[in-house]
Write a structure and sequence with these properties.
494 residues, mainly alpha, Growth Hormone, Chain: A, 2 domains, 21 helices, 77% helix, globular
Length: 494
């Protein structure tokens, strides 16, 4: 049943469910903030810990490899062993790893801590949507809950840039990790009380150890290959060889899932047009969004000469616009017009965002040249909640964790592809313009222009996929699993 389906007025949502939504959103916000907050502090980290230029990239890469490689497995583990337990373990690991990162005195310790942060993030993030869709089963309330959840992903990156600049400039880079401690501990304390207890379906329902090893190794190796493209190139023997091994491992995983008695990922989940289509749209959209979230910040710093704090503040209107739309109107629009129509509208706005960036001048002025771009970023606030609703509406109740893990996995694949493809194209175009005698600022801007244009093309492709594939009625939202034990009375916190 879609969000546009008629029905009785939505029942009152118990306070405990709203607290649970707050816990899930806070946990996700902590993870998203950590991703963007680190990029702002990279120069300070390099200087303090004496990272080599090549080694510094592993502050990001170690996290991405662990996070992206474990999401699918973590989502299925949540279905089998209980999503609440997996969320708690993931949050605890992330919080402890943040403390280790904050006190790191060497590159090796910081990289190890970032890998552990990725493990914790994968466990907590993979089951978050699965918990959410079992708590909010009525379409209108689910749309509102997903809008809140999506806001943390869409606007969290911009908020992280502001916070990262302020903490790094005012205190030190250590505080970008220390700030996770009170948030993580508070999240754990409240989550223990308000998240519904669930036992999962048991290991017998899908304890596919061989499949788990194949998919985890394949995803980790694939993401590693992608993030190293900027260093080795797309046609290098190392890239082609590792890429081929990754594809082989993932192909063997699919074969295993088609023949295993208890598969880790039942392939029937991909037969849903909504699940398959939404994940494909997400890969394209997230890859394009890299050009906005990262390359715009680089343009502000490298071309216009903004500092860390000023860059974060310049991106703040985008976060506010995304928040206003995703929290204020996206659910109501989805209820009236349907998620597909809202998604298409959001994607159209994003084409406008990247189209304007293609024409941004070397000596841009913020108000006429950049502020309209930031405000049009409200399209993220329309597209992401609608896409999430579409993707999760095609999953059965006993596959909610798997669908959540799959959705998060394609998000990370899209991000890795965006980093590899768009940054490589921008750098190559910049080098070409420098060789032709252009100034540094003009050459950098030309490189960014190419990346923005390719990003716009990816969004147009995502629009076409959404228009043609995401048709038809949604599956009825899954009810609370029979083995779940949701709170029946309001739960209050001290």
């Amino acid at each position: 049943m879609s969000a546009t389906a008629s029905g009785p007025t939505s029942p009152h949502v118990p306070p405990s469910h709203r607290l649970a939504l707050g816990v899930i959103a806070t946990g996700m916000l902590m993870v998203v903030l950590d991703g963007s907050i680190v990029t702002v502090a990279m120069p300070a980290i390099q200087s303090d810990l004496r990272f080599s230029p090549a080694g510094l990239s592993w502050v990001v890469n170690a996290y991405l490899i662990a996070f992206g490689g474990l999401l699918l497995l973590a989502g299925r583990i949540g279905d089998l062993l209980g999503r609440k337990g997996v969320f708690l373990v993931g949050t605890a690991v992330f919080t402890a790893a943040s403390l280790l990162a904050a006190v790191a005195t060497s590159p090796a310790v910081l990289i190890a801590a970032r890998f552990l942060q990725g493990v914790g993030s994968a466990l907590a993030s993979a089951v978050s949507l699965g918990i959410l869709v079992t708590l909010f089963t009525e379409p209108a309330e689910r749309s509102k809950a997903i809008a809140v959840f999506s806001f943390t992903g869409a606007a969290g990156a911009s908020i992280g840039q502001v916070l990262g600049g302020l903490l790094t400039d005012a205190l030190s880079w250590h505080w970008i990790f220390l700030i996770n401690l009170p948030i993580g501990l508070a999240t754990l304390a409240v989550a223990l009380r308000v998240l519904p207890a669930d036992r999962g379906s048991g290991l017998a329902a899908g304890a596919d150890v061989i499949g788990a090893l194949l998919v985890t190794a394949g995803l980790m190796l694939g993401i590693y290959t992608i993030v190293k493209v900027a260093e080795y190139g797309w046609t290098a023997g190392r890239t082609l060889g590792l890429g081929a091994v990754s594809i082989l491992l993932l192909a063997l995983f699919l074969i295993r899932q088609a023949t295993a008695r208890t598969p880790l990922m039942p392939l029937r989940i991909l037969r849903s047009r909504r699940v398959a289509g939404a994940n494909l749209v997400q890969v394209l959209m997230v890859a394009a969004l890299f050009s906005f979230q990262i390359l715009v910040a680089l343009y502000l710093r490298n071309v216009l000469g903004y500092g860390a704090t000023k860059t974060g503040l310049a991106m703040l209107p985008a976060a506010l616009a995304i928040g206003a739309v995703s929290l204020g109107v996206s659910a109501r629009l989805s209820a009236r017009f349907g998620e597909r129509a809202v998604l298409l509208t959001g994607l159209a706005l994003l084409v406008g965002v990247l189209g304007l960036l293609v024409r941004v001048p070397v000596h841009a002025r913020y108000l006429p040249d950049l502020l309209p771009v930031m405000l049009l970023a409200a399209g993220f606030g329309l597209a992401l909640p609608a896409l999430t609703s579409l993707g999760m509406s095609g999953a059965k109740e006993d596959e909610a964790g798997l669908a959540s893990g799959l959705f998060n996995t394609t998000q990370q694949i899209g991000m890795a592809l965006g980093v590899a493809v768009l940054s490589t194209l921008a750098a190559a175009r910049t080098d070409t313009l420098l060789a032709r005698g252009k100034g540094r600022a003009e050459a950098l801007t030309g490189g960014y222009h190419l990346a923005f244009a390719v990003g716009a093309g990816l969004i147009v492709t995502a629009f076409a996929v959404a228009f043609t594939v995401l048709r038809g009625p949604a599956r009825k939202p899954p009810a609370m699993p029979r083995n779940a034990n949701p709170p029946t009375t309001p739960v209050t916190t001290a």
